[in-house]
Amino acid sequence: MEVVLESCNNIACNKTTSFKIPVTLWVYGKKVQTKTLVDLEATTNFIDRVVVENNNLVTYKLANPYYVINADGTPNKTRYITEYVQAYIEIGSYRTT
């Protein structure tokens, strides 16, 4: 699974369609435990840049960066997403492949 870098501070939390849960990220055998915002209306997975930097996770440049617009239609503070992380996400006993 590819998880795109983004600052979670820029994502609005709609209390009717989103909630937070604990997850474990596996990046090249490295285990990172954190909480994630689950947004039922989201179409892409994001990871907070702070989580990436604090855990020294490996990132890759996107071939085609893409422009980010918030759910309310305003431009995101970061404007473009340029990197991604390859990770498995584990929630309880479920693990993505």
Please, could you describe this protein's structure?
The protein has one domain. It is built from one helix and eight strands. The strands form two sheets. Strands 4-1-6-5 form a four-stranded mixed β-sheet. The longest helix is centred in the middle third of the chain and has 6 residues. It starts with a strand and ends with a strand.
How does the SSE layout of this entry go?
Blueprint lengths: L1 E5 L11 E10 L2 E10 L6 E3 H6 L5 E10 L5 E12 L1 E4 L2 E2 L2
Parallel strand pairs: 1-4
Antiparallel strand pairs: 1-6, 2-3, 2-7, 5-6, 7-8
Give a short summary of the structure.
With 97 residues, the chain is mainly beta.
Relevant terms:
97 residues; four-stranded mixed beta sheet; 1 helix; globular
